[in-house]
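Reply to thread "Modeling small-molecule complexes from scratch"

Following up on the discussion above, here's a worked example others can learn from. I took a protein sequence and the SMILES for zinc ion and predicted the complex. Inputs first:
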Amino acid sequence: MKIHVLQCGSISVDPTVPYGRRFDLIEKTKQLTAADEKRITLPVFTYLIEHPKGLLLVDTGWCREISPRGVYDLKAASAVLPSHLTALFHPALPERMAVHEQLAAMGIRAEDLDYVLLTHLDPDHVSGLRHVNKAKHIVLPEYEYYWSCRTVFKTRQPQNLWIRYPMERPFYRGSSLGPNHWVIDLFGDESVQLVNVPGHTEGQAAIVIRDGKRFALLTADAAFSPRNWQEMIAPGFGFAREWQKKSLRWIADMAADPGCAAVLCSHDPDVKPGAIVF
Ligand SMILES: [Zn+2]
């Protein structure tokens, strides 16, 4: 099993986005108005998995249109995102870092991808979907789709970035795995499992890639870095803090498992792009 860690741009955010302090409306308002000098820059990761059953891409990073010259561009970003999300993320995507640009450099076209798995519908994970929508399958947990279409998540997960693409939307099913005991077992052999880790969004999936007793865990945004579960500080960008903590406790247990080959968070500044083989 081989996992390529691809960095598809960055976010520049208030420090309470990865590590919440107050978890209230005041904090969320501050996140939108943070001064440039207070912000920290974090990577946006996607993952290309070479699996015996095909090529899998997990998440899609920023789209090229959001950052046409490779730097944060308020006007260009605001043409793609609502103004409050531009203000929150300050997205940037350097040259050759868009997901399709990196895949092309590896000789891979979107049509060659067997699966694009979406962990959740926040724009830093799905705006690049426009570049890889010709993949054979695009998979999103139904539970994430359901709440994104109906609730406050509509303001956070703009539908124009993802709703027009044909997605397969399986339901989670009961399992012994995960904080919520809900899993989508992609191939029915436990080699790729989408595990519901609620709190950041309702339906967010972490991904467990397994080969025998060894596994890697992709946390999506349930944790921004190991500090979240080591110090039990939930990310400040989320809507259900107790669920976030429950998800973090599960990640901590998985990280301590002797079979754990790697735990990768979507915005961990200590992770470097490259390949992990296990
Ligand atoms: Zn994210």
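What I'd highlight from this example: The mean pLDDT is 96. The chain has one domain: 2-277. Questions welcome below.
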